[in-house]
Design brief:
Radius of gyration: 21 Å
Helix content: 10-25%
Structural class: mainly beta
Distance between the termini: 55 Å
Largest sheet: 10 strands, mixed
Number of helices: 4
Shape: globular
Number of strands: 20
Order of helices and strands: HHEEEEHEEEEHEEEEEEEEEEEE
Length: 406
């Protein structure tokens, strides 16, 4: 009997390896215990579905009971009542006209049935690309020097950012230009996002959202809507999207992890998304809004220093290559943004515009004075344009081709 089980297990593992898509081409040998651990973790991640959608990009989104999504596996969420909308939105102190996000990125037929929310189905192949099931959906931080934005080795991450000073913030809104950087290997990523931060770096609390290309997480090279959070400097808490108990999905039509389309083209049409994240003044949940759609929120109790306010906000690009500091001669960093330097300007370089912050009394205003930060100008740069006009507001261009950056 034991021999039969062993043969069955080896066949199952072989099938998994053979079925793995071209994005992930490295075979991974699993022990029986590892295989069974992955099966158990898949059962935790993939809740029973009322209905499912398969997108044109190959993803499956399951419509899960809103009260049974993974967020409610958190021990402090046992008696949590879902908040379906913010108690109030930030008040603007200007007369600008703000357009909505005009992208066809939602699920068809108005999305999931009432009372359910779309959650991207996790596959065995997804788990196999992670170092372990427990590390699935997490950032790979090797030591504290990779948590902070600093120069010097290890240089597996690089940034081109606009940073605020330490002040008191309650959220941010920004329009992020959409590009698909050419990430050519499965374990690298390139992204554009905001960071809402608080606390010392070794215990960093952060809320992040934007777009990313990350084959390791999504098994393709598509541009994806994503979010991330941590309450301890990326070490033990937090994860990407809804891959751990944390973020509460509310939208029935637009899930985290969805492919973004259409995309900007060099010298051609430009597209963008508008993201707003703010602390609800009554419930104290951190909300994430795309255009006019409330995607969901991070419950207040998963944070410590970020539970009442933020201390700083950053906007910009980040790239990651786990091999960069280990093999400078053979391994290139991926492109950032459009893959072109900031001085090329509109239609050629990636931009963020209408950068604003939420301050006390739930008021949204233009971002304060910021400080550019680029840790390797050999591969990336940024140009802060300041306040351009009443339509573009606070704007900066950023990005670059990547390559050998050390």
């Amino acid at each position: 009997m034991a021999g039969a089980i062993g043969v069955w297990l080896m066949k199952a593992i072989l099938v998994l390896v053979l079925e793995t898509s071209l994005v992930f081409t490295e075979a991974k040998t699993l022990s029986k215990d590892e295989y069974l651990a992955m099966k158990r973790h898949l059962k935790i991640l993939n809740k029973p579905a009322v209905k499912s959608f398969k997108t044109d990009y190959g993803d499956i989104f399951d419509c899960v009971d809103i009260n049974k999504q993974l967020a409610f596996d958190h021990p402090l969420m046992k008696n949590h009542t879902v908040q379906m909308q913010p108690s109030s939105f930030p008040t603007r102190n200007d007369n600008r006209v703000y357009s909505t996000t005009d992208l066809d990125i939602g699920l068809p037929d108005d999305g999931c049935p009432i009372g359910t929310v779309p959650i991207r189905r996790v596959t065995m192949q997804d788990l196999m690309r992670a170092p372990s099931p427990s590390e699935f959906g997490k950032k790979y931080v090797l030591n504290d020097s990779e948590v902070i934005f600093t120069t010097g080795p290890p240089a597996r991450h690089h940034w081109a950012l606009d940073e605020t000073k330490y002040e008191e913030f309650y959220g941010t809104e920004v329009r992020i230009n959409l590009w698909k950087p050419n990430v050519v290997y499965w374990n690298k990523f390139s992204l554009a996002q905001f960071w809402i931060c608080s606390g010392p770096y070794e215990k960093l609390n952060t809320i992040e959202a934007g777009w990313m290309v990350y084959p390791r997480a999504f098994n393709d090279y598509n541009l994806r809507l994503f979010s991330y959070w941590t309450a301890d400097g990326y070490h033990n808490t937090g994860c990407l999207n809804v891959n751990c108990p944390g973020f509460v999905q509310i939208s029935r039509k637009i899930p985290l992890g969805v492919t973004l389309f259409p995309l900007s083209t060099y010298g051609g049409d430009q597209y963008e998304i508008t993201l707003l994240s703010f602390l609800d003044p009554n419930s104290k949940q951190w909300w994430l809004i795309l255009g006019n759609e409330s995607i969901g929120y991070w419950p207040n109790h998963i944070f410590n220093s970020l539970s009442a306010k933020a201390e700083r906000i950053n906007w910009g690009g980040e790239v990651y290559n786990p091999d960069e500091a280990l093999d400078q001669l053979k391994s290139d960093m991926p492109p950032m943004g459009s893959g072109h330097f900031a001085e090329e300007g509109y239609g050629k370089s990636s931009f963020m515009r209408a950068m604003q912050v939420v301050i006390e009394n739930n008021t949204i205003v233009d971002a304060p004075k910021t400080h550019p930060f680029v840790d390797t100008r050999k591969c990336y740069n940024m140009i802060d344009k300041g306040h351009v006009d009443d339509v573009w507001g606070r704007t900066f261009y950023f990005g670059g081709p990547g390559g050998k950056c050390l």
